[in-house]
Amino acid sequence: MDWNDYDAALFDLDGVITPTAEVHMRAWAQMFNDFLRERGVSEPYTDADYFTYVDGKPRYDGVRSFLASRDIELPEGDASDPATAETIAGLGNRKNDDFEQILKTEGVEPYPGSVALVQALEARGTAMAIVSSSRNAAAVLTAAGMIQHFPVIVSGKEAGERGLPGKPAPDTFLAAADDLGVPKERAVVFEDALSGVQAGRAGDFGLVIGVDRGVGADQLTEHGADVVVADLDELVADAKEAGA
């Protein structure tokens, strides 16, 4: 790709910059399987459920989507619900507690290839933002030592405060491009989730790059990715060449 055609890079966080998708997956599995066992449901929650119903979505939307797939109805509840509450919000909060505990005890290291691309883009003056459904985005970036590279962060927290619908709607990506002062046609979206590449395509951005961390290149392409890579280090040489 020719980076001279673009002025901004809009990165999803989990699974693109940091391997926190793995931490999220473990936290979701722990929460949902505990919940299903408590209700006497024999069919467990699996990684396939994560990619189909949860990946890339705001937390409560993920809870709602998975429960609907199992024909389980719960009241919505409220964001202030305790993690013990059997509500959509309560289960989402329980998952967040599990995630924070895993992050605290194990930490997180960014993908080396992602660090290399961010540094190359920063060197050439490309504007960069994080667009994440996670409300923990700032904490994860801080733990990974990457927060200084991103002057704009549109996380689940900011999306809620600004009334922006989450992925697969394009609104959070559009808001990040606007915050950077870059037209969407000059911005590149980086996503590893199907809902994320759908958002990039729906927003009509200049380029949508799918990062295949397990969901599958064909799936990413079918849902809107223009290009699919296995790791962002595949794009570093182009970024350095554009910056020369």
UniProtKB/TrEMBL annotation:
Keywords: Carbohydrate metabolism, Hydrolase, Isomerase, Magnesium, Metal-binding, Phosphoprotein. Its EC number is 5.4.2.6. The keyword Ligase does not apply. GO terms for molecular function: beta-phosphoglucomutase activity; hydrolase activity; metal ion binding. Gene3D superfamilies: HAD superfamily/HAD-like, Putative phosphatase, domain 2. Its cofactor is Mg(2+). This is Beta-phosphoglucomutase. It comes from Aeromicrobium endophyticum.
